[in-house]
Structures are given as structure tokens and as C-alpha cells.
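Crash report, auto-generated. Payload:
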Amino acid sequence: NAGVTQTPKFQVLKTGQSMTLQCAQDMNHNSMYWYRQDPGMGLRLIYYSASEGTTDKGEVPNGYNVSRLNKREFSLRLESAAPSQTSVYFCASRRGTQQDTQYFGPGTRLTVL
Amino acid sequence: GNSVTQMEGPVTLSEEAFLTINCTYTATGYPSLFWYVQYPGEGLQLLLKATKADDKGSNKGFEATYRKETTSFHLEKGSVQVSDSAVYFCAPSNYNTDKLIFGTGTRLQVFP
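Recovered output after restart:
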């Protein structure tokens, strides 16, 4: 079991460029999440998907879009990157009930110049 | 709305010292409670959890008890090691949704 995998590990973009962060899980989990982590801010939820075919906004969705491609994959897209989106991005998955553990990927460190 | 408050860090301790990291939360219903740990350069991983009142979660010498009356889930360890240096996050689970509510994290630094 690879758990939750993310690609790429590092990325540098120029302002206005677009990119997609990929996430996949092999645990047959129903729910998947995208967070960003900034110094002193903890983790903030960007978007989540409670099941295949559904997505919902979290705390900080502006500037992002997501796609739940199938049960395994949940991608995060930045259409026009801004320096304020410089952050570490984590994907996570969970089987689906509030008692279940959420499993995290290793993260993507994104810098927008 | 639901929220969580953790003590500010960094917490700096000598090896073998006693550790407490306080966590209190506000939530509707009866959330499950989690402590996650993040080692430098890594993602978060589960440290321990408790799913109902008075449950005690434990792992790697760490413990936390679900205190419904005080809405707290304080993390303790009797004797910390240098390898425990990390950031610790308290996270209640929102009772009505699939979401975890993360605190800002508490950095622990343990010196030999």
C-alpha cells in the first residue's frame, strides 16, 4: 500500500501560470481533501470531496478548482497562480465517518514568483 | 462555529522531561478527537485518537483523554526524547460533516 501519493513534490511557478497538483490514494477511501499549510496558520481546508462525484468548498477555495476524477484521484488546479498561493499543499483521504483517521500525503511545496 | 485552541509554541524541553500540550475545543454533538504529528519535511500522521467521552488514546508513550465536561484533549508524555521534536496538531472531527478542525499546531523542541 502506497497510501496517499502526491505529485509533484516541488514546483516553482511564475505569476499567472497554471498547474494541477495530483493526488491518489489506494485505500478505497470515500472522502478526499486538499489543505494548504502556511507558517503560523495551521492547516486550512481548500476543498473536499465526500464521495466520488461530489466536491465542496472549504475555508479558502478562492483561486482553486478541484476534480474528483474517480474514487482514487482528486486533483487541485490553480488556473492563474498568485504569490499568495505560495504554500505547502497536502492531500488527505479518509474512509468516511467522523471516527475514521485521515491519512495525509507527503505534500507539495509550491512557490509562486 | 466549531473551533480548537492549542497552546502556543514553541515548547522547549530537555530530554526525559514531562510534556503537556493543552487542547480545548468547541463543537456540537460528540466529535471524535485526534492528535496528529508532523516531523520536519513530512506530512501529518496520526499520533492517537479517542472517539467517545472518557476514552484514552495512547501511542509511542503519548496519551490523551477525552474530557467532555471540560471539552479538552490534552496531550501528555512522561519522558520526551529528542526524536519527539515535531509539530503537534489537535483536531476534533466535525460531528455533522467529514471534516477535521485543525489548530495552529504546537512546535515541540527537545534538547539532549
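Post-recovery validation: The longest strand of chain B covers residues 44-50.
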